[in-house]
């Protein structure tokens, strides 16, 4: 991929890039729908990336080529107001990141960019956050500006929320910007404090795209946010992070049933996420297996965001893994991916399960075996 992006850059701009900016996708191991409740999440950056080959220009133009979209291009001035591209969705991310940096007072310079990535799109692995972070890092580096990973993440989040129009928490961009090789990242979504948690080397991260197209996501996601807010308000708090388990169960029967179920998931999921970080750190596979199973059960029965196909796939993997690893749905729900932590000597269980899954459901599930990677970085080019 690096060779392709540099070759494309040389062909289009008649020079080698000055550098290549790189940012990974991510998977969330546990901590679902806790981010907007100021809770805890435990994602890992993965070894699928967006690359942005970059060189400075002498004017104030941004010229960008999307290698993965048959070499489509875009060109605009640094000081131009944000305007959505009529056809090219990828262009909107570039325009949004540039505009967000300008909004925040950064003195940017014109540059040439070639963008390429291998983060699977539409699979819930944060290809868009990876793109936002890689772009922001590239634009700042050209201007000679270095900023902390947290600020890089906030820029990516603001670009998506304010311009592209996809409301998201901070997790995706923060782990893409600040992930550490060989580690998951425990994130406090209130303080944005991050704690790296060493992943046991014998555990592989296996992400399986279920083939279930994600439906109802926006309307159901917004409804659950409202239900969580209603529960927090009942307890005279702004978010569920500040409602203890004891407070909740003392008054749970006074809440409407659906609101009670949603709140119970979030409150217990926060607790599970902290325990899972500890289980990872101490290589306690049995506890991790239990916590991931509880998380999936809670998403199925309390938050009600899984599908029958995903439940079947999770149950089949859980049966084969036993207490040696864990598995659950990951992401917003109603389709998408599952994540499993699988001992390397048990990786052979995956293919037969997926073959059986296809027979039972007619769906083709796609596995990705990942390792936890470093967050955003610059790739050194051989001169």
Explain what the structure shows.
The protein has 383 residues and is α+β, with helices and mostly antiparallel strands. It has two domains: 2-198 and 373-379, Ribosomal Protein S5, domain 2 (2-Layer Sandwich), CATH 3.30.230.10; 203-370, Alpha-Beta Plaits, CATH 3.30.70. Helix content is 42%, strand content 22%. It is built from eleven helices and twelve strands. The chain has helices at residues 2-13, 89-103, 127-142, 149-164, 171-178, 217-234, 245-251, 257-281, 285-301, 308-321, 350-361; strands at residues 19-30, 40-56, 61-66, 72-77, 111-117, 183-188, 194-198, 203-209, 326-330, 337-343, 366-370, 377-379. Strands 1, 2, 3, 4, 5, 6, 7 and 12 form an eight-stranded mixed beta sheet that branches. A four-stranded antiparallel beta sheet has the order 9-10-8-11. Strand 3 and strand 4 (72-77) form a beta hairpin. Helix 2 packs across helix 3 (127-142). The longest helix has 25 residues, at 257-281. The chain is globular and about 65 Å long. The two termini are 18 Å apart. The model has no long low-confidence stretch (mean pLDDT 95).
Q: Say what oligomer this is.
A: single chain
Overall pLDDT level? 95
Percent in strands: 15-25%
The main sheet comes to: 8 strands, mixed
Helix/strand class: alpha+beta
Q: Which architecture name of the largest domain does CATH use?
A: 2-Layer Sandwich
- The number of helical segments is 11
What's the CATH class of the largest domain, please?
Answer: Alpha Beta
Low-confidence stretches: none
Strand tally = 12
User: SSE string, helix = H, strand = E?
Assistant: HEEEEHEHHHEEEHHHHHEEHEE
